[in-house]
What we know:
- The structure holds 2 protein chains of 2 kinds.
- Chain A is mainly alpha-helical.
- Chain A has one domain (about 5-325): ABC transporter involved in vitamin B12 uptake, BtuC.
- In chain A, about 75% of the residues lie in helices and about 5% in strands.
- Chain A has 15 helices and 4 strands.
- Chain B has a single domain (about 10-115, about 135-285), classed as ABC transporter involved in vitamin B12 uptake, BtuC (Orthogonal Bundle).
- In chain B, strand 1 (about 130) and strand 2 form a beta hairpin.
- Chain B starts with a helix and ends with a helix.
- Chains A and B meet through helix 6, helix 12 and helix 14 of A and helix 4, helix 9, helix 11 and helix 12 of B.
Amino acid sequence: MMEGPVAELGPAAAEERRRPVRALHLAILAALLAAQFVASPFQRSLLARIMVLGAYAAGYNVLVGYTGLMSLGHAMFFAAGMYATGLLTYYAGAGAAAAFAAGLAAGVVVSIVVGVIALRTSGVAFLIVTLMFAQVFYLTALYFNRITGGDQGLILAGRLAPLRLGSLEVPFTDPAVRYNLALGVFAACFLLTLWLVRSPVGRVLIAVRENEERTRMLGYNTFAYKLVALVVSGGLSGMAGGGYTLLFSYLGASFASVLFSIYPLLWTLLGGAGTTIGPLVGTAVMTYLLDLASGVTDSYLIVVGVALVLIAIRFPAGIMGTIRARWARWLP
Amino acid sequence: MNIEGQFVLAVLEGLVSGLVLALTALGLSLVFGVMRIVNVAHGEFFMLGAVIAWYVSTASGSFALAVLAAPVLVGAIALSIERFVLRPIHYAPEATIVATIGLLYILEQLVLIVFGPSPRPVAPPFYFRVDFPWFGYSGYKLVVAGLAAALLAATWLIITRTRLGLYMRATQQDREMAQAFGVPVHRIYAAAFSLGAVLAAVAGALVVPVRQAYYLMGLDALLLSFMVVIIGGLGDLRGTLAASLLIGLTDGVVSIFFSPTLARIVASLLVVLVLIARPGGLSGETTQ
């Protein structure tokens, strides 16, 4: 890419510049690892939720932040992972690892199917098609409510074999297990997106975001690159959905609703679209804000509305995007 | 009731809801066409129309006054949104989507605070039955369908026969050229945005006696309007009407014979199919 100091420096200097990036990302993960020893039980549970949802936001960011495709249907990828993992556990008694893998696979499969069709459109039409697909998914989950539990959902507690650590058996709902598995899911998404956006493929994705026409003229098959971005994005979202079901022992159609497609958009934009750290920051800020607001009023979703309007009018770069523009040009 | 009767009922229900939907969707299509923006908060104008109609008719006892007051108030709200939210972001497509999603939640949650979470009915202004061989049908619903059709015709006249309509069509075709010829583009944007909101608000007010006023009713109106705009084509009145009736009838027939959820799945898939067959139909108009 043409922009950014990394491209202007020679390879050795560029490598030098990468070091704080890698160190910063590892430091964030280390801080999250350490946080469990100081956080209260309530904070720890909230942080575990933030990390799983942050993984979902990181997946979303690959598409909206780095490829420039705005989707309003990501809840279907998250929910696909959730239903694959949850239903296999609930009805087939699948083990956690197999169920989790199925969640990831479901996110990938659904995003391939949706991508092949939806990527024929672009811009506003892409947004509406993804919204419609997600709506089909949501309504289908409601339609088969005898199996899926519909809006009420299903509770997995008791159906999931506990995690075996040597001779020790610990349930997934154990706070320490939950926290560290959430951290694992998040770390996987976090490091994968970091690696992806700095790889040659990621550079092409950014080129598609900046100018798709020109990228095509340069000889890149932009459709294939966009499909890759969507599948990575959908796969990570499905993985986060599967992780969420295992860790919180619940699945429900509300996770496939429009609101759950809007959340990752909000988290990503608030934290900074097109930054690797932004999705986590946005998810954390918004989760804490909503937690505070829901203690005050039943109409706490007004916070979501105000945040989105303010982002659009005053704060389009988001938190990390602003930090990058002002102080740290080297942030990926 | 035999299957014939059920079918006639389904068609009748489909026609009524299709005409109301056409009114709402035409508002979205107009804004889409003239301003090149997607107003995700469009369904909330429908909801506000219904809620304001409930307040006015409960306070004054006059439903006719409610049907007049709702669009006026919602039009004023839309004007201030256009001025203080959309104009500052220069109608940029993605920023507008983000902002109008935000407005969706702001309006919805404000209504939740003020109006409360439970749906509230308004008695129809009059009650008479139209007798069919199989069943008696609400006369009010037929009047609603007639009014919706009349308003669609009026909007068509505004678009094709007035100076305002001419300016709107000019702006839709080529904004810069229109501006060069002295069309006050900013005022046309404001007019189109509030006219779109007015159409949704009238539709919302008209259906209150049938469906009740409810703070979450906007999302459904929005999703259905999206479907209509995609299937019917952008800024195309006849297409909007045809697509609304198609979706209304599909919805009516599948709902009565199968289930409302299945009806919605079928309609959503219909939209996906249209976009597969005609991928550039929408994006060609809006993104280039």
